[in-house]
Design goal:
The complex is a heterodimer of chains A (415) and B (330). Chain A has 415 residues and is of the alpha/beta class. Chain A has 13 helices and 17 strands. In chain A, 41% of the residues lie in helices and 19% in strands. In chain A, the strands form 5 sheets. In chain A, strands 4-1-5-6-7 form a 5-stranded parallel sheet, sandwiched between helices. Chain A starts with a helix and ends in a 16-residue tail after the last strand. In chain B, 72% of the residues lie in helices and 4% in strands. In chain B, strand 3 and strand 4 form a beta hairpin. In chain B, helix 2 packs across helix 8, helix 5 packs antiparallel against helix 8 and helix 9 packs parallel to helix 11. The chains are: A alpha/beta (415), B mainly alpha (330). The interface between A and B is large, with 38 and 44 residues.
């Protein structure tokens, strides 16, 4: 009897030891899954995001030495498929990444609509779902547990823009809002409207246009008749091009034009043939030239992780094999890699719930700037935006003043 | 005191006869200004609608011609428009040539594509079930999209052709739009004359009317099929150039889908087998699309743009109920 107890005890101890070592053993690699927008309407932002993610993975694996889990440095791997910028692509690919590719974390596609479409799938599998391209506040009002945002909330996009205009021109009052009828733009413009009213501005025009619009002439003619001083609008890249182009066609010359999620893209200037983009502004989560550094992080009491700005830019160019400067889509996607690495290291685990809890508590700074999310909702609260303006074919940071790389041209040059 | 004025109530808060009369005159003057502004906007939008309608009309003529002659609905129609847009973009940005020069180049490229697709795909499908030809043209469209993506990438591109603007009291018109409209009218007129005054044009019309009868009269129906398909595609590709003169941004491999939808509505509106009907329907479509915005904007609490977009489909629905053969269809 005693002997059999002893055998059982030995068996339990040995089995338990084996189980424990296996449980705490570091996996051989950490896989990031991503339904990427390689084609379709978000292809431009999608390419940037892939470049940013690859650049930061390159940094983690080859400069940082890998992710430290259970005393071992393990490499990051990146698995992505083209979702064609479509919701059905996003949902099926997330399922595939989780069940077939056995990824450790899922990065969202791009845009609020696609991010929102993918969230329930990640939630069903209790998978940490990191959002670098969905800015709508509504995503975080659904009660999802595993979503964590790196991009800032949509309602804050134009807060800085309007503050800046009021700072330079306190008399400017008449604001026009013309924007795409999409989740993201509605949220962004809702925030802009609220802030404009708070600053004492009058909304003289407020209209939406449907997605995929090919001619904005009637709407812009209507807007012109209301004689606005400040125009805030857009929605995504393609309608942002159309917006500025047709404002120019109709000779709508105002003091300031700020277009969301389009004017900040490097290709925007070329797509408009140059001159029309001059003076057009856009809010951005990151711009080349913003000065975040380990020294600055120390000053504000935050940990620093990741490459410096120039190192990130060169890794980005290497990742895409193109000599282009990354934009904020690349930076926020890259910063997300760093946040995940930091959370895994802080918890010394790849368990989804533990990583999600660590992300909720995480505060750090990288080349992208500050990173801190609301513990419960996962919404980004620690990152501040900048405003850029096209000046002589270059993107110049004009706000906030402490981050500015040039002076605002105000009123903007005529189209 | 609450006074009723047209368009709403006016609450008078003053206490003298003079201030009441001043307030009322201000209300009326604002009302007159508002009405004048609406009329100006409507007139301006109708001008832009007419200009755009001309290009829409030309863009649909190819679809109607192909359906009229070989009885095939080209589901890949918009993708041929996309080819034309890239012809204009490449000639402008790479070769530095004006979009006006890109028009004949697009016709040649379009006709070459038309002959290629006819002899490789469509010839075998003329008498095939409708679904087969629908799938074949759908596949042609996807093929074109993917080739364009391979060559140009998936970016949204554009160009800036600085040819000035005309400023009218009611609106501003870029010269590029005016050139696109004039180009469309000239091409449509040329086609009309070509169809009615030349032997080949007459042969095409005879095949449209009755292909068996035309064959009995000695018309080489097979060649007319090939030629009509090539002309139809050539016209469509050419209209892609004209569309970029109108809207020179957003050029990308996937831009065709929206235009296919519009072209179908216009083609049905004009009578599916009538290229001229398609042209006039294009003009009407452009006018309604632009003009309706101003009128919908008068309805309080309504977003006029989405209504304007859906209006085209309401028109189609109504027309199919009332006159299924279209405006000029028989």
């Amino acid at each position: 009897m005693k002997r059999s107890y002893l055998t059982i005890t030995i068996f339990i101890v040995v089995f338990g030891f084996l189980f424990a070592t296996n449980a705490f053993a570091a996996p051989k690699k950490l896989v990031i899954g991503h339904p990427a927008c390689l084609s379709g309407k978000y292809a431009k932002a999608g390419e940037q995001a892939i470049g940013g993610i690859k650049a930061c993975i390159d940094w983690v694996n080859n400069v940082y030495g890998g992710v430290l889990v259970a005393g071992k440095r393990i490499p990051l791997e990146y698995k992505y498929y083209d979702c064609e910028s479509k919701k059905e692509g996003v949902t099926s690919l997330i399922e595939r990444l989780i069940t077939v590719n056995k990824v450790n974390v899922v990065f969202s596609a791009y845009s609020s609509g696609l991010t929102l479409a993918g969230a329930p799938v990640a939630e069903r599998y209790s998978m940490v779902y990191m959002d670098h391209g969905g800015a709508s506040d509504r995503i975080f009002q659904q009660g999802f547990k595993y979503i964590v945002q790196t991009i800032g909330p949509g309602s804050k996009y134009h807060v800085g823009t309007l503050d800046m205009i009021k700072y330079f021109d306190p008399k400017a009052k008449k604001v026009a809002l013309a924007y795409e009828d999409s989740e993201f733009a509605r949220m962004t413009m809702g925030g802009a409207e609220k802030h404009a009213k708070k600053l004492g501005c009058k909304i003289v025009f407020k209209r939406t246009y449907p997605k995929g619009v090919t001619d904005l002439t009637p709407l812009l003619s209507d807007m012109k008749a209301r004689k606005p001083e400040i125009v805030v609008g857009g929605g995504h890249y393609e309608d942002g091009q159309l917006f500025a182009r047709q404002m120019s066609d109709l000779d709508i010359n105002v003091k300031a034009v700020s277009l969301v999620a389009s004017a900040t893209l490097p290709a925007y200037y070329k797509a408009l043939g140059g001159r029309i983009a001059e003076g057009v502004m856009g809010p951005s989560h990151w711009e080349y030239g913003v000065t975040f550094s380990p020294k600055g992080a120390k000053k504000v009491g935050l940990d620093w992780i990741g490459p410096g700005q120039d190192e990130f830019v060169s890794l980005f160019k290497k990742a895409l094999g193109k000599d282009i400067i990354p934009d904020y889509h690349a930076a926020e996607a890259g910063a997300q890699v760093l946040a995940y690495v930091k959370a895994v290291e802080n918890m010394n685990s790849v368990d989804q719930d533990k990583v999600r809890a660590a992300l909720g508590k995480l505060k750090f700074m990288s080349f992208y700037g500050g990173w801190d999310v609301d513990d419960t909702t996962g919404m980004q609260i620690g990152h501040s935006m900048v405003d850029m303006q096209w000046q002589d074919g270059k993107r110049v940071i004009v706000w906030p003043l402490e981050a500015a790389t040039g002076k605002l041209i105000y009123p903007k040059p005529k189209f | 005191m609450k006074i009723f004025v047209r368009g709403g109530d006016f609450i008078y808060k003053g206490n003298t006869q003079e201030t009441l009369s001043e307030s009322l005159s201000e209300v009326f003057s604002n009302r007159v200004k508002e009405e004048k502004m609406i009329l100006t906007l409507l007139a301006g939008n109708l001008i832009h609608g007419l200009l755009l309608g001309g290009v829409y009309g030309l863009a649909t003529m190819g679809l109607s011609l192909i359906f009229g002659v070989i009885n095939v609905v080209n589901v890949g129609h918009g993708q041929f428009i996309m080819v034309g847009a890239f012809v204009a973009l490449t000639m402008f940005t790479v070769l530095g040539l004006s979009p006006v020069i890109a028009i004949p180049a697009a016709l040649i490229i379009g006709m070459a594509l038309g002959f290629f697709f006819f002899y490789t795909v469509m010839r075998r499908l003329i008498r095939a079930p409708e679904l087969t030809s629908l799938l074949a043209t759908f596949a042609m469209g996807i093929l074109l999209e993917e080739i364009a993506k391979l060559i140009f990438g998936a970016d949204f591109r554009g160009y800036y052709w600085a040819v000035g603007k005309i400023t009218l009291p009611i609106t501003t018109i870029p010269m590029s739009k005016l050139y696109a409209f004039i180009g469309s009218i000239a091409i449509a007129l040329f086609l009309y004359l070509w169809f009615s005054k030349t032997r080949i044009g007459t042969a095409i019309r005879s095949v449209m009317e009755d292909s068996e009868g035309a064959r009995v009269c000695g018309v080489n129906v097979s060649w007319i099929h090939a030629l009509s398909f090539a002309i139809g595609i050539g016209l469509t590709v050419m209209s892609g150039v004209l569309l970029t003169m109108f809207i020179p941004v957003g050029i990308n491999p996937y831009m065709g889908g929206g235009y296919t939808l519009k072209a179908f509505v216009i083609a049905v509106l004009g009578g599916l087998t009538s290229p001229y009907g398609a042209f006039f329907a294009g003009l009407i479509f452009g006018l309604i699309e632009n003009g309706a915005y101003t009128l919908f904007a008068l309805i309080p609490g309504v977003a006029p743009f989405p209504l304007t977009v859906s209006l085209a489909f309401w028109m189609l629905f109504f027309l199919l109920l009332v006159k299924p053969t279209g405006l000029l269809g028989k």
